[in-house]
Amino acid sequence: MADTTGKAKKTTATEPESVLSRRRLLGTAGAVGAGGLLAGGLAGAAGATAARDDVAPLSGVGSAALPFHGPHQAGIADPAQAHGHLLAFDLAPGADRKAAAALLRRWSATAAELTAGKAPKGDGTGIALDAGPSSLTVTFGFGRTFFDRTGLTARRPAALEPLPAFTQDALDPKRSDGDLWVQIGADDALVAFHALRLLQKQAAGTARLRWQMTGFNRAPGATERPLTGRNLMGQIDGTNNPKPSDRDFDARVFVPRDHEGADAWMAGGSYAVVRRIRMLLDSWDNLSQERQERVIGRRKSDGAPLSGGTETTPVDLDKVNPDGTLAIAGDAHIRVAAPASNRGAAMLRRAYSYHDGFRDDGAPDAGLLFVAWQADPMKGFVPVQRKLDRGDGLSRFLRHEASGLFAVPGGCEEGEYVGQRLLEG
């Protein structure tokens, strides 16, 4: 359970002069300072009108943009944003390959405009009227059943075989799987919802929403300096995540660009395993901090491994305490999940926390929207989850309640759409 700590380069969107509506004027309040806010307050309505007539710059968070086009889809190697939506669609009865291609063409065009900070033609929702792109990413994938329903079974990747059953699973089929999968992330909640709303409207008549989940992370600038995120258990989560700067990052996360065969269309793509993992927070919070740290294998305060050092110090799985016990317990999460314990198996984990209210017994319905990226799920997620399923002390405090596996093709160039090599190849 972790999110990515790699830092993707962000660019500033170029805003057309005619699209003043895409500027987030209020986002500059922090730059104006207390004195400016006070002056604005005293100016009253006239001052507010004047401010809206000015061309004010967006804040750094609002103006940050990630390109939609490229060799890989955005939203994979980029840091997880503050707000996220995961959703799956099923093709409507009668929707065929041609209809699916038309939908992906519409979706890709809309996503390209939104991620550049532009208002799509004909959009009158006004949901993100004053906002910049806010690091928006939109990522598309295909579920196993998509290939049957579009007559493309012969081109379905072998890596898209159903995930095996795990003993800790309590999966709800209504919130699992799906023909089409979409991941939306942004550092502004309205920007993320705007994308969600437009894509859902554009699917009408072609695909029907199967399930949707909403998550969050720490907001940019909430800490004095960039830090690894924490999950709802209060644990620093993501320290040992693969980083784009790692020599073998691409080999672990992306299908090789020279990939051949019936699924050659997956070259440059990746496979996403999606899990809704509810945390038993009431039970977890009843543990002492010392016990929580032993379950994880790290100090809660700073994320340092119990074998010593700082957060980024390599874990010493062989270290023994003066009393003869292992510094990192045999069932500690970081031991069981470590690549060294799984013959080098690793994946890029890019998660969002979620809170969907409270259950009938008063316990919070909260946890992790876990998304794991890898070049081959049978070599990444599956062996690691099997090991966790058998021997992870943390599993006593988790419930896996939804699951899905999706083939996420490589990116597209301008004038193309995601999945074009599959649907028109």
Q: Can you tag this structure with a few keywords?
A:
425 residues, globular, single chain, five-stranded antiparallel beta sheet, alpha+beta, four-stranded antiparallel beta sheet, 18% strand
Q: What does this molecule look like?
A:
This protein is of the alpha+beta class. The protein has helices at 29-53, 60-63, 97-115, 144-149, 189-202, 249-253, 281-285, 289-296, 333-337, 381-391, 420-423; strands spanning 11-12, 64-65, 83-91, 137-142, 180-186, 207-216, 270-279, 348-349, 352-358, 364-374, 398-408. It has one domain (39-423). Strands 7, 8, 9, 10 and 11 form a 5-stranded antiparallel β-sheet that branches. A 4-stranded antiparallel β-sheet has the order 4-5-3-6. A two-stranded antiparallel ribbon has the order 1-2. Helix 3 packs antiparallel against helix 5. The longest helix has 25 residues, at 29-53. The radius of gyration is 23 Å and the shape is globular. The chain starts with 10 loop residues before the first strand and ends with a helix. Residues 2-53 have low confidence and may be disordered.
